[in-house]
Design brief:
- This protein is an alpha+beta fold.
- It is built from 17 helices and 14 strands.
- Helix 7 packs antiparallel against helix 8 and helix 16 packs across helix 17.
């Protein structure tokens, strides 16, 4: 051998090192390819094999779905049947099952095409690395779910392989076995099958032409039923006496019953005559259920509210009587219990709605989820309203203001007529209604004149001349006490001077009445009696310097300096 240059020797050594390091890797890759087996379900036999003569593209999940739906759209049920795993399906006609499965998938199952891989091993290459299924081959994919007999039935495709055959993607045997039962629920009604063929053809989206026509008809029929219900209840209500319990109940359920007629009629028509396709059904089903639940809750709550209002309104006068302290306690607690029952019914209705609607796999779930997010925003914004609701329960149980109590609020004497969720309804002495927030009765002070004892001291204040003889006024005051039947505890009666200035003095006359209503009338009579007595004394006094009773304007004259 000739002498080799150092540079050439270095290149030879580098090439040798690269070859030695690559050899194990290449050998390892070949071993994996030879030893690896596809991730499949093994079956005994398949009717069709993959290849150029196969009626469907069964190599990948996306290929199966695209070719199956294309065959179904063309009405080629013989080719579409190649996508069904018919193993252990006794007595089933493959073409009939393929036609029914196509109708179910086309009308009732929203296919997420982005989740269907176009790879034989079904590896999801679009998912994130944090997904536990990232890079993992699959042999089963759930296309969608349909409710059947209070359970969720999956529509799945599976990768199967017969002995000495190639792996193929087909609809799983469990899915094929469930097709007849699902078709009974989600397939066309007898009325739909009677429609002409052109009306059953697809118009747009997943809607057939008959659905485009039927949808406004269904809404119109529901609106017609609601209108008839509204006018019928309105006519019945007008025939009833306004003072009867039935009139109050009919008035209360008027609108909820109208809403129930609308939603119930739509549900009945849809179930009997029309079964709308997937996305439209997924949108209408939760909305329809919400309307029905809301209407039923509205009827129940309206009846409770009407009966309670009827009971309290009929007893308002009796509740205001001083001796009915126990009745005021009872009806106030009953009002609190009514609000608790209302809240419990609302929570129960919301829970039933979430459980019964099965909306987690429907388009309606997105709507409800959006509504839930909006609800959180509204709850945050309505913190004061929620605080008022808690305050109303606090008032009812603490009984700081009871139904029938006489209170002094915002400078007005009122009776408590109703304690609501967010407000109190007060009736003034002159039959006006004051709506006051419940927070005003928990965070601010107010006077409750009937909390412990309905009796109270009524007082009349008169401005009299500073020269008036107060002792002389006590005689007509004593006469009033002795002769007025509404005065109780005469020994508590007082006549006293409470203020004085350069113009007049203020004399107060106080007597006790049995309750605020009686006391107000007595208060007016006392003022009239004492003013008359003061006027008589003032007229008898004559000119100055004899004592006067009614204040007079005085003139002060000063002689001018000469």
């Amino acid at each position: 051998m000739g002498k080799q240059s150092p540079l050439r020797m270095i290149l030879i050594l580098l090439l040798a090192a690269i070859g030695l390091s690559a050899a194990p890797v290449m050998a390892q890759g070949i071993a994996v390819a030879e030893d690896s087996e596809p991730y499949v379900y093994e079956v005994e036999q398949l009717e069709f094999e993959a290849g150029p003569t196969a009626p469907l593209d069964l190599d990948t999940p996306m290929g199966l779905m695209e070719s199956f739906l294309a065959a179904g759209e063309a009405g080629d049920w013989e080719s579409a049947a190649a996508g069904l795993d018919m193993a252990n399906i006794a007595g089933g006609d493959p073409q009939d099952l393929a036609a029914k499965l196509y109708d179910l998938v086309h009308r009732s199952v929203p296919v997420d095409w982005t989740a269907l891989p176009d790879r034989p091993d079904a590896v999801d290459t679009a998912t994130s690395s944090e997904d536990p299924m990232a890079g993992v081959p699959r042999r089963s994919i759930t296309i969608g779910r349909l409710a059947l007999d209070k359970r969720s039935v999956p529509i799945r495709i599976a990768r199967v392989q017969a002995p000495d055959g190639e792996p193929l993607w087909v609809f799983s045997r469990q899915t094929v076995d469930n097709v007849p039962a699902l078709y009974e629920v989600y397939g066309p009604t007898a009325f739909e099958e009677m429609l002409p063929a052109p009306l059953r053809k697809q118009a747009f989206w997943t809607l057939a032409w008959w659905e485009v026509i039927a949808l406004p008809i269904i809404l119109l029929v529901g609106a017609l039923a609601a209108a008839l219900t509204y006018f019928a209840l309105n006519k019945w209500r007008k025939r009833l006496d306004e003072e009867t319990k039935r009139h109050g109940v009919v008035s209360a359920v008027h609108l909820p019953a109208t809403l129930l007629a609308f939603a119930g009629t739509i549900a009945l028509v849809r179930e009997t005559f029309f079964r709308l396709s997937g996305p439209v059904r997924d949108l209408l089903d939760p909305l329809q259920l919400i309307l029905i639940v809301a209407a039923i809750l509205g009827i129940a709550l309206s009846v409770i509210e009407a009966l309670f209002d009827f009971a309290t309104d009929r007893r308002t006068t009796k509740l205001e009587a001083p001796e009915n302290n126990e009745d005021r306690n009872f009806y106030t607690k009953l009002s609190a219990i009514r609000r608790i029952i209302t809240a419990a019914l609302l929570l129960a209705g919301a829970g039933f709605l979430l459980v019964a609607s099965n909306i987690s796999t429907t388009l309606g779930f997105s709507i409800i989820a959006s509504a839930g997010v909006m609800g959180l925003v509204l709850v945050f914004a309505a913190r004061k309203v929620l605080g008022d609701i808690m305050a109303s329960v606090q008032i009812a149980f603490a009984q700081t203001a009871r139904i029938g109590d006489a209170v002094h609020y915002d400078g007005q004497w009122c009776y408590v007529e109703k304690i609501g969720f967010t407000h109190l309804r007060l009736r003034t002495w002159d039959e006006r209604r004051v709506i006051a927030p419940v927070s005003a009765f928990t965070s601010e002070s107010f006077e409750n004149w009937t909390k412990k004892d309905a009796s109270l001291m009524m007082h009349v204040e008169l401005e009299l001349d500073n020269r008036a003889d107060v002792e002389a006024l006590r005689e007509p005051f004593s006469q009033f006490i002795e002769n007025d039947d509404d005065v109780i505890d005469p020994e508590d009666a007082v006549c006293e001077v409470i203020d004085q200035n350069a113009k007049a003095m203020v004399v107060r006359f106080m007597v006790r009445a049995v309750d605020p209503k009686v006391g107000w009338a007595m208060h007016c009579r006392l003022r009239e009696h004492m003013l008359a007595a003061a006027s008589r004394m003032d007229a008898a006094a004559g000119n100055e310097p004899v004592p006067a009773y009614i204040p007079r304007e005085r003139e002060v004259r000063m002689d001018e300096a000469g």
